[in-house]
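Q: Got a minute? One more chain.
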Amino acid sequence: METLLMQGKPVAEKYREAITAKIAQARLQGRTVTLAIVVVGDDPASHVYKNRLMKLITSLGGQAKEVLLPEASSEAEVLETITSLNQDDTITGILPMMPLPAHLDDAKIGAAVLAAKDVDCLNTGNQGAFLAGHNPWAASTPRACMAILEHYGIELTGKRAVVLGRSNVVGKPVALLLLQKNATVTICHSRTKNLAELTKEADIIVAAIGKPAFVTPEMVKEGVVIVDVGINAVDGKLVGDVAPQVVAKASAFTPVPGGVGVVSNMMVMEALTRML
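A: Always. Here it is, folded:
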């Protein structure tokens, strides 16, 4: 069986032209598309992601505003920063880097982002509208998963999908997006019993559990489609939530790095352009 490598770059490039055109049109109208990226503390992964986003938006013709806050910033200080960006007419969209330091409430700070500037569906009003089917703009990573599956022609109707992880930013929304495409979806998490029995039945597995090489060959069936959302640092390298040996049994899979993350970055930019 030949395995399809679902690389992210071709998917991201498909969106580049339309996004660039929208940003250029805004400039002709005297508006500069600006993404404010808020980073609290010195988490290396957050700063890597921030730098990639800044480089990407510049390449598309927009600009980034980097907002760096100390690790010890209070919740009130972070909320004050978000409020200031909400009120700044030069800011098109706002993205607080998650996760925040442990003493801060991610959900509360995400909810403070103005709905009209919320590029990653952190505002509770936007989340509710998405859940109700009134807003297609889920968080960037779930939309990236779906964009990859669509680009590579993976049929979802009637298929059994297992989502590993139940976070508000990946697991829950990607499950809903799969459901909207007529897949039968099971969400698994740390308290799920007999996990391997469920994953063995899956036609599609979306792994977003945050544990390196968590999914092993014994947990999947032949021909499974793997979407690996995991980004874990192990011995100085980035690895996914799926063990490399699983590839031999998969009909299609996303690599780490070079898969979902590449597309997720572009989905942030696509969300930014809807605010124009």
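A: The chain has a mean pLDDT of 95.
Q: Perfect, thanks.
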